[in-house]
Specification:
This protein has six helices and four strands. The chain is mainly alpha-helical and about 200 residues long. The strands form two sheets. A two-stranded antiparallel ribbon has the order 1-2. A two-stranded antiparallel ribbon has the order 3-4. Helix 3 packs across helix 6 and helix 4 crosses helix 5.
Length: about 200
């Protein structure tokens, strides 16, 4: 992934950058199964990304988590006063505002993916009670949604030391901070936006 990432500054067009992003996503999701312990129920093992609708429990968790994250990112964008329809990477292809999708990328791993993997590895999910199967579709049940919201909200209360500002803030506060740092980037005061690194 580090080798592919080094190609990004040399991208000469949006399609070429999309290709690099696609390669990185394939590598990331290809490695994700190795993070789930072998003792986890087979129903919760990750076998590839699918959505709209999710076809397995892991992807149901990802989809629900990303929806919660998008809501929080949109709140931060509107609080700061930026226009959600004006993104810098994602293009307007659906009703989802491009800027919301752009800013979600910073927080997907720390706020959604990592808590999901950790909760599966800790055995927190009931494969029957927390999920509903409707044909080929898999959704979280009422108890599953409540459990996920609790997991997500607790994660947002955890602190992270921002590598540029040096301040320790909760992820909840970091969402708004990143939007403000993007605003500074657009105003010519660059160098601070999107510096979060998950170790």
């Amino acid at each position: 992934m580090k080798a592919v990432l080094k190609q990004a500054p040399q991208a000469i067009s949006l399609p070429s950058l999309l290709g690099i992003e696609g390669n990185l996503a394939a590598l990331y999701f290809g490695a994700l199964p190795s993070l789930v312990v072998g003792s986890a129920p087979v129903e919760l093992q990750f076998a590839g990304r699918n959505r709209r609708p999710p076809k397995d429990r892991f992807n149901a968790l990802l989809g629900f988590g990303y929806a919660l994250l998008l809501k929080d990112v949109m709140n931060a964008i509107l609080t700061v006063g930026l226009e959600p329809a004006l993104g810098f990477y994602h293009q307007p292809r659906s009703q989802t505002p491009p800027l919301g999708l752009d800013l979600m990328e910073i927080f997907r791993v720390p706020l959604v993916d990592m808590p999901i993997v950790a909760s599966i590895n800790r055995g927190q999910w009931d494969v029957k009670a927390d999920f509903e199967i409707r044909g080929r579709q898999v959704w979280l049940s009422d108890s599953g949604r409540r459990k996920f919201i609790d997991l997500y909200e607790r994660r947002k209360q955890e602190s992270w030391k921002h590598p540029v500002t040096g301040y320790s803030l909760t992820y909840r506060r970091l969402l708004e901070l990143e939007v403000r740092l993007l605003e500074k980037e657009w105003l010519g005061e660059g160098g601070m936006f999107a510096k979060l690194i998950v170790r």
